[in-house]
Amino acid sequence: MGIDMSVFKSAKHLASWAGVSPGNYESAGKKKTSKTTQGNKALKTMAVECVLATSRQNNRMASHRKRITKRQGKMKGRIASAHLLLTIAYNILKTGEPYHELGSNYLEEKQNNKELKMIEYLKKKGYTIAPSEQQTA
What we know:
By secondary structure, the chain is mainly alpha-helical. It is 58% helix and 5% strand. It has a two-stranded antiparallel ribbon with strand order 1-2. A hairpin with a 2-residue loop joins β1 and β2. α1 packs across α4 and α2 packs across α4. The longest helix is centred in the middle third of the chain and has 22 residues. It is globular.
């Protein structure tokens, strides 16, 4: 992979070169397969091993893998997290800025912020918002 990221146009190109991009084979609205692309076996293996090394920690990578694994299985969770890892590595090497851990509940907080913004937007438009049964329980 190297440290010169000018070789790759974007993080998606790096992920594709490493072989951790998801397959997108669809015809007539039916998904045929979801195999990953062929790529650099050594880099792909290293990325998956790094993802597995974070499995017992409480960080964004581990929570991402667990979230994907629940829906799609072990292997897809590993590959998706390896894709995230390479995207992070690309951005670190491209910009030169250090990595800041966002935390394991980053997506939950982001979703809550979206909901709060939507409620504020609706209040500005003149609607009244009442808490539902699930929120009060």
